[in-house]
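Lab notebook page, bench 4
Experiment: in silico fold of construct C2
Operator: M.H.
Input chain length: 184 residues
Purpose: comparison with the prior construct
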Amino acid sequence: MKKILPLLLLLSCLAGAQANSQQIANQPAAISNSWKQLDRLNYSLQYPNDWDLAESEGIGAVFVILAPLESKEDKFRENVNLVIEDLKGQTIDLDRYAKLSKGQLKAALTNFNLIDSQKKSNGGREYFKAIFTWDDAPFRLKVEQYYWIVDGKAYVLTFTSEQDKFANFSETGEKILNTFTFKK
């Protein structure tokens, strides 16, 4: 079997650390007045007005949305990003994808610690939610990640924060994750 997730999940977690201080250019009704809308052919997402959107396949993610720097000393921008992986030709369902993903993350990430992993449903569509921590020196990171299998593709939506700032950013990060919807 072809090895899935050829470090795409790793790239999705690293996007914020790589961007650190660089500038790179469901609940929609509750926040739509003060948030920007990202609309694409098969999905949409909302994010705060003061977060920066960068869209590029070249960075390993379809997009990265970066929180503003908190100060000049801030070296990591909390972020949400999306990686889409083509699974055509493979018979991988959501449960198998989740199991393989957890195994690959555990093998690839330093001090990986899975905090929570569960299958959920929103709007009749199943997804997996995982929360974990890991170290990417000098950063100690905490990640909340959702993944879906839709039309032969895996969608991996990730919120990444420094562990000691997770409580400050998790409400906004989770709101962004929860605005993600697939179009019919």
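Observations: The chain has four helices and ten strands. The CA atoms of residues 106 and 167 lie 23 Å apart.
Next step: discuss at group meeting.
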